[in-house]
């Protein structure tokens, strides 16, 4: 099959951390001498729908190191995996916030910020600008546009680095986030076999499994975990999600440091199949 271009979708608008993560994917694909077309959707659900239809691959935020997992992303990859969608790569993106404005700190009276951005920078705001009004926006890009459209030194916004470049706005303060260890994990997903095969060219460092127990009894989760422990396979994430069958019924989402094709992991899966249904949501490597 001759591929002329890769179409990529992510959560918009331009200037978001999702945009930054998508640019890393485009850079990773640079050795392919084909065009890469990036488009933006208004919600995570729409990004998944695009990847299930006309778009080749999508870049999705999955979890933040301080805020935790994004339920919509987890539930969507579980749902669309039934139609063949897989996780084909992951990206860990350092989250750094900047204060932008046309004046200086002493002149700022109003700050525009996405709620999550503000929550991750509130210590700086309280210490340096505790008398300002904070107006919430729907995205970091919208915050940046408020500064771009205003020449008032009283207006400032909390934005990522990409917004400074995209909207040509000046920086008042850098690295204003509360934690220097703040990062977001993104996954790259696709339902297109030719895309999946391109990313399957080498041994994978991680796999994500969905474990659906056949019954509910004391000690069941411990039995599942012991199967991996006995084979010295490291689990980097385990989280329960509602099965959506009935109240109190759950499935388990596991990240495992092993390629799904590894013989030891295959032995684990054979043992697990005695008590649970298993789906592989993808085996993949990290894009750096």
Structural commentary:
- By secondary structure, the protein is α/β, with parallel strands linked by helices.
- It has helices spanning 17-28, 44-52, 71-81, 115-119, 122-128, 140-148, 161-167, 193-199, 220-230, 263-272, and strands spanning 5-11, 35-41, 57-64, 68-69, 86-94, 98-101, 110-113, 133-136, 155-159, 171-173, 183-190, 206-213, 235-242, 250-256, 276-286.
- It folds into three domains: 5-93 and 182-199, 3-Layer(aba) Sandwich (D-Maltodextrin-Binding Protein, domain 2); 98-173, D-Maltodextrin-Binding Protein, domain 2; 206-286, 2-Layer Sandwich (Alpha-Beta Plaits).
- It contains ten helices and 15 strands.
- Strands 1, 2, 3, 4, 5, 11, 12, 13, 14 and 15 form a ten-stranded mixed β-sheet that branches.
- Helix 2 (44-52) runs parallel beside helix 3 (71-81).
- The chain is globular and about 65 Å long.
């Amino acid at each position: 099959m001759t591929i002329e271009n890769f179409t990529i979708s992510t959560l918009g608008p331009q200037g978001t951390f999702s945009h930054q993560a998508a640019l890393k994917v485009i850079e990773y694909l640079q050795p392919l001498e084909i065009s890469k077309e990036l488009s933006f959707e208004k919600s995570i659900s729409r990004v998944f729908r695009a990847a299930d239809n006309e778009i080749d691959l999508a870049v999705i935020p999955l979890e933040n190191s301080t805020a935790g997992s994004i339920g919509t992303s987890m539930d969507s990859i579980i749902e669309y995996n039934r139609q063949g969608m897989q996780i084909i790569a992951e990206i860990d993106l350092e989250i750094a916030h900047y204060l932008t404005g046309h004046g200086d700190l002493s002149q700022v009276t109003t700050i525009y910020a996405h709620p999550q951005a503000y929550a991750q920078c509130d210590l700086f705001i309280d210490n340096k600008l505790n008398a300002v009004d904070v107006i919430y926006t729907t995205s970091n890009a919208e915050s940046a546009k408020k500064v771009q459209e205003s020449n008032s030194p009283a207006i400032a916004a909390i934005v990522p680095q990409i917004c400074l470049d995209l909207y040509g706005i000046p920086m008042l303060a850098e690295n204003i986030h509360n934690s220097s260890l703040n990062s977001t994990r993104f996954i790259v997903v696709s339902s297109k076999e030719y895309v999946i095969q391109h990313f399957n060219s080498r041994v994978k460092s991680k796999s994500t499994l969905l474990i659906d127990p056949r019954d509910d009894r004391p000690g069941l989760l411990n039995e599942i975990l012991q199967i991996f422990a006995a084979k010295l396979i490291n689990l980097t994430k385990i989280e329960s999600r509602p099965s959506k069958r009935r109240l109190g019924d759950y499935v388990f989402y596991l990240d495992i440091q092993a390629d799904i094709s590894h013989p030891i992991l295959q032995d684990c899966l054979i043992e697990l199949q005695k008590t649970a249904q298993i789906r592989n949501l993808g085996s993949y490597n990290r894009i750096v």
